[in-house]
Amino acid sequence: MYTERKPIKINEAVEAVLQFAKEGELEYVSINDSDGRILKQPIKADHDIPPFDRSPLDGFAIRSEDTVDASRETPIELEVIETVGAGAIAKRVPKQGQVIRIMTGAEMPEGTDAIVMFELTKEIERDGKTFIELKRSFKPGDNISFKAEETKTDDILVEAGRKVDPGVKALLATFGYNKVPVGKKPIIGVYATGTELLDVEEPLEPGKIRNSNSYMITSQILKAGAVPKYYGKLVDDFDRCYEAVVNALDEVDVLITTGGVSVGDFDYLPAIYEKLGANVLFNKIAMRPGSVTTVAEYKGKLLFGLSGNPSACYVGFELLTRPWVQLYLGNPKPHLQKVQGILKADFPKPNPFVRFIRSKMTIEEGKIFAEPVGLDKSGVVTSLANSDALVVLPGGTRGFKKGDVVDVLLLNGEGSSEILEK
Amino acid sequence: MYTERKPIKINEAVEAVLQFAKEGELEYVSINDSDGRILKQPIKADHDIPPFDRSPLDGFAIRSEDTVDASRETPIELEVIETVGAGAIAKRVPKQGQVIRIMTGAEMPEGTDAIVMFELTKEIERDGKTFIELKRSFKPGDNISFKAEETKTDDILVEAGRKVDPGVKALLATFGYNKVPVGKKPIIGVYATGTELLDVEEPLEPGKIRNSNSYMITSQILKAGAVPKYYGKLVDDFDRCYEAVVNALDEVDVLITTGGVSVGDFDYLPAIYEKLGANVLFNKIAMRPGSVTTVAEYKGKLLFGLSGNPSACYVGFELLTRPWVQLYLGNPKPHLQKVQGILKADFPKPNPFVRFIRSKMTIEEGKIFAEPVGLDKSGVVTSLANSDALVVLPGGTRGFKKGDVVDVLLLNGEGSSEILEK
Known about the structure:
By secondary structure, chain A is α/β, with parallel strands linked by helices. In chain A, about 20% of the residues lie in helices and about 30% in strands.
């Protein structure tokens, strides 16, 4: 039976969902397994960088006072008494006229106060001793990397909420984070609905199509940093569906269903929410695609009833589920990054409701452009695979022209703390 | 002993490396494990989309000829004789005045040629039968999604070389790719050099620092899509170093060493290349940082001798090793994506050689900006963690001002088929 639903705005929907945001626990993982995880604590320096005065190059550690009279006309000779490599400590203390050969990264030997690079010296062997010839003077401190000049103990180097990437991992290693405090991943259950759905390995049958949404959503869940748990298809029987949903809810932090939220006779989800006694936050959003997207809450857990339409399903996850996941992980920028871009093609359709168009972003001459993909019917399928952005066209607008400036949500961007404007 | 080296240009270095590019084998992985992998074959439609004429909404399948006289003033009644859900096939064929209730995605029943959505009908129960009232006429084909209107069998939907993301995965599922043909990941060995290096779990000692490069490189290798194999530190003994390198070469596709390529007394790599009889492609690049970056080839395998300086090590991997990995995987866009951006800060230093500055990219009002990070000494460490781009300043230039337009290499971009200009 067709029932009127009251649509709410997408921002209201996002806010309704995030009222049930909760931050997940902290867990420690080995630094070797930390790639892509979200830091739950800032990275703090456990020591100064450099940890000691050191040589930034391969050369000789000298007493600068010995070089005061050195010049091109009056070169001086200094005796090399020891060689010290990085990681070693010089054993001797140079006296007047003596130097220590030193490698990049080695600690400044006691009694020395400047470094001369190899290239400025000439080595001389004489009487079984090694000397260097110098043709210029040096000042105390020349070419030394001083203790703590880069970073001091207890400095905060990376804030909590950042994702571990190669540079962050370098800092974790530098500061001894053998175990890394990260946000525990939420478990997201996925149920597909629809008797028309075949699994990927099944041959095609009349009237049926392959289930693509579950694979797509699983991939979106992984990309968002959570753990997908795919339960298969809900069968075409209300009582068994109800039981399946109740059982899954025990095992997951969030449950996603794809399909079954529209007004069809076999769209069981609304009735399941009702029988559960779940709190339906909304069952219609004034947007395209995905207007039937429904979210309900039951004992603090969210049930995302995403549309069975692939584009709507995709958009519903990115706009509603992903921010919940990001906050759970501890990312303070849970929303898709929004930038301005220039439309690369006309979009003549009117937009009675806000529209999210799967698009391909390009950068040309330092400017962002976005081209809707799949505008014609033949592009519907490939638009799934060729998008890295969503063009946002506000509701109540009449069509847009190539060259118009529009909002663009980046699907691979760094995230934003702002939701779409109210 | 200091030896003069002949620097080559970065583009020449990249070209020299890619002369030894080879494409890795194809392997099949389960669709469930395909996220982030590079497709080795295009995705081809194994059937039409839609596979049959179908209803795109919940409503009634009608014979349009029955509605010719329907209007607001003269509504008509049609009898509902069956309900067909998605995935099912109608059992009956409507005769004049009869319709079939149909759900989204269901195949068009025989004898019907248009769909009427629920919202345009009024249902009437009478004499144990169900009728709908219609107040307008419909034309043949109204609201039908026709077979093959989106995609035809054998259409190529995604080219080889693309990375599997949620949208690509949806297509893989749609077209029955239970096993996905992807590029086999190369194995990249990593050896650190330097007696000054402590492992991440070791306490600090005088004169020593923690090994951050190995963790950083391992993370870069993972991000590039390859398999890192970390061998630990090369010990401070030439013969044992040599043996370690020889043994590792047997087990990997590429061997990276960090450090040990400069002119220090314990920089063994040049001598190891020599003893191996390896073909040293270059041992100096006219760039900052990373001028000592060395690459050698031995029996078709590349040995990347990256600098021990963390920034130089990072840049060396991204510019030289990563493209080799991408070509191995089958990505036709192996290089970092290059865009133009606006400098957000002065960079007063002269650039005798091309300079790659770790930078943070932002997008403001649709334009790309890049701000160098770690310009002062106190930023050296954090610059590792806060960069997502490299600003490129050409050699032979005298300093740049805030607002200048510069080339920017994106560290998280989609890739490019072009190397830096010659």
